[in-house]
Amino acid sequence: xxxxxxxxxxxxxxxxxxxxxxxxxxxxxxxxxxxxxxxxxxxxxxxxxxxxxxxxxxxxxxxxxxxxxxxxxxxxxxxxxxxxxxxxxxxxxxxxxxxxxxxxxxxxxxxxxxxxxxxxxxxxxxxxxxxxxxxxxxxxxxxxxxxxxxxxxxxxxxxxxxxxxxxxxxxxxxxxxxxxxxxxxxxxxxxxxxxxxxxxxxxxxxxxxxxxxxxxxxxxxxxxxxxxxxxxxxxxxxxxxxxxxxxxxxxxxxxxxxxxxxxxxxxxxxxxxxxxxxxxxxxxxxxxxxxxxxxxxxxxxxxxxxxxxxxxxxxxxxxxxxxxxxxxxxxxxxxxxxxxxxxxxxxxxxxxxxxxxxxxxxxxxxxxxxxxxxxxxxxxxxxxxxxxxxxxxxxxxxxxxxxxxxxxxxxxxxxxxxxxxxxxxxxxxxxxxxxxxxxxxxxxxxxxxxxxxxxxxxxxxxxxxxxxxxxxxxxxxxxxxxxxxxxxxxxxxxxxxxxxxxxxxxxxxxxxxxxxxxxxxxxxxxxxxxxxxxxxxxxxxxxxxxxxxxxxxxxxxxxxxxxxxxxxxxxxxxxxxxxxxxxxxxxxxxxxxxxxxxxxxxxx
Length: 604
Hints:
By secondary structure, the chain is mainly β. It contains 3 helices and 47 strands.
């Protein structure tokens, strides 16, 4: 059934869109992991390794010699001994941080921003309603033996033990006045796990439990907890986030009501009103439509760098710096995506001209101008009232309750938009998307089911659905394997529809040459994955090969268990199955004969 979610989730969708629209990419710095030189006072439990492996059932991770990964060889002898925590030599204030983490079954660790504010790392595989102590939670504070102020993730987007998980954090350090008094609390701007936003704009009034210090400071090292459980980390990247100090001065404005549409026309006629102003402000236009508004002035930038400008307005508009067009004239409206322009500026003073011609009554008035550079926040050069608040699109979601849900839609997969996709959500909170034309599994995920906003909001563009959970993207290739066919599709497979099982789950039916194929996908035990059974009937079935999986790398772990890609998910087959693994079109493919029903599980 269709349901609109709460205002909170609607706002989150809008915030995600804003974050994804950011054009200035931070210049992330790597913490090198070819040695431990980037860390201070390293205890023996920490080491650099070249590879880490484990299965979802393993309580320990196996390592191999080499470099590129940080590993905490945790033992119970160092339990709760804070000296075994790891501190970077780098000290940070405001920062964006990214890393990949892996933990074994039952493990517990934490990432402490400024050594004081913990984002929890914990084996939360299969947890339905996460707490602040679960993976990605902002840990609690404690006073008088009472815990308080922890923040649970909005949803559980964690993966199975032994898989790499991607963590992203945007952190704002506490602020202090000249006397050292705290004027603003530390804040997590956002925390994302496996691409899903878990927190946004969460203030922390002080250090969390097990912090390295109780006092708060403007700069301090990053700390990785080493006294609670085993953890492997790679691809540690960070970037300081600076405040950008750009000022405008000597701002003049000219307003033309129905008498100009372009700068050239404005130069040939008298403005309706004009004067000086302290800010760029669209409210200097008194009419709601058919007006031209222009601002000229001076802009002072602090250093030579590449700057990106962002505008939002209704109608035509443009920005010039030192007489050159940075944002070329183009038509848009308040409510659409902003427009961008990039220019290299020297330190010091520059002239600017910004104008807008509004010519459609249905669009809202407004004008915004932001400036940013790599590693800075966007700075508004307009007064806040110059642009109306953008109304976020409501999240239109399909949720799964007692019975499975199925939705037909378009869906993006890789660089293609597929038109015949069925997404299936199971009450066990595992879901998948399926290419009906090929009989190919496109992606699987756990948690909430489907975001259908782009199918139904306003005109329903771009008509696509997307997962509400963290998706594990699969190859999407047909179950039929033809060694000589290097194309993305199998032309001879014919989709014959699906019927519903007693559990109201689809049973897909296909024909391929003289063969009939039945494909059944159900939730695995405890909702920890999906089990797929492909049954082929007809003469010559023993000659047909079924594609179980296709990935950049397939690694056997023993007992019929395989890890796919860079340990992104698992495939489990019967230990007696012995699938064939061979190279195919620059990848590896896992194959089984169709002579008997093919059954395997996808675990993540």
